[in-house]
Fold these 3 entries.
Entry 1:
Amino acid sequence: MAEPAWRRELNRLFASVKDDQEAEALLGELLTPAEYAEFARRWQIIKLLMQKKTQRVIQNELSVSIATVTRGSRALQQGHGAFEKFYKRLYK
């Protein structure tokens, strides 16, 4: 099935971001403060999982439920390598 045009457009929108300031401006206007915080928290979960932190440690550090951490772990395990690619790009 072909990818919907709106999804391709959104992907191009994010790909057009030139720097941290543009990313913050775009996300700040696109997302509510709660959505922005949740989006950032999800990345923190992935990052800590990639650093081999245990789910319990992550739960305590981020004050999230174990189910939320497990969901992130499952996404990391069942994904196609995007998390690893971007983690390496940012931290290695």
Entry 2:
Amino acid sequence: MTTTVEVEEAKTRLSNLLTMALGGDEVIIAEDGKPIVRLVPVAPKKKKRIAGLNRGQIKMREDFDAPLPDEFWMGEDCIFVSVDTKLSDYPVKLLT
């Protein structure tokens, strides 16, 4: 919901307008009917990432970057899935 108020009204209702903005409503402050400011919550700071924090917890096969077999590129023995596809209806072939 969008609420537009004049500057004078915003001065007297600031606490209420802050509550509305923090609740997800759009609050616009206008001067002489022209919007001049949008009241929005400040986004929280993102936590700084620490390099190496999960070292040793992720395993990768030695051939992870090996070329894929031709069957993959030709679409042979492959199924295309969507969110509605039941994978249990299809036989599984593991690439080794």
Entry 3:
Amino acid sequence: MSKRIGLTLAKPQTSAVETAEAWVSSRLGADKENPGEPAAPPEPTRRLTFDLALSLHRRLKVEAARRDKNVADFLREVIERECPQAP
């Protein structure tokens, strides 16, 4: 009695460098004014850490969720609105 075993070819492996390069390229996006050109590098960022009362933290999370946003994106929008750039 013979037994048949189905074999499938493995997908070609991409190197870690190729994978990293693809990820970086996808994160930069494209320049909207000049399609096909890479976007300008993002502005450097700073991390903020501060204490909030539990009740205020809860309200913040609820309001961000109500707007279907994460807390960081919601706070960025509030800060942009409340602290406009000087002309």
